[in-house]
TrEMBL record:
Protein name (Swiss-Prot/TrEMBL): Copper(I)-binding protein
Protein origin, superkingdom: Bacteria
SUPFAM superfamilies: DR1885-like metal-binding protein (SSF110087)
Signal sequence annotation: none
Amino acid sequence: MHRIGAAVLLTVVLTAGCGVQSGTTDLERARIGLDSVDGRVGDLRLLSVSIASPGPRGSTHLAGDTAALLLTVANDGQDDDVLTGAETAVAEKVVFRDGDGAAEERLDVAVPAGGVAVLREVTGAHLELTQLRETLRSGFSVPVTFEFRDAGAVTLSVPIRTYEGVRPDRLVEHSS
């Protein structure tokens, strides 16, 4: 009888640990240290999506400021697609910016068939959240919806990176 009880207890403990990763909340995501998220819509994979750290000045993006939204979009399909929009309730707009160039309010980012669109350079091509409506703190996540011409829309809970002392587009990510 004790063996059956021990086996049941062991099964409960092991399966309880399996569910932790799949149902993470934003607070849990911050606590376990995830600094980017991946997603998929149609044949498109959104990879290493994150909001850049505010930098050495602290751990918050202040309301009214801007924040870089970094990602790579990989197209596993046979047809080209286009990122036509992005939105979030925490910013007035999401725009395209190439380094210090003028912000382009109309998103028109080509994602070639079998190729990638790299929007990960804070000093180069990236998306930018403008006129933040609230203070954003490192370690938390915000919902962002990405709209593609053919694949449709996907909403991801995008984490705000913690300052690492290095530009976020220069961080080397290791997988275990």
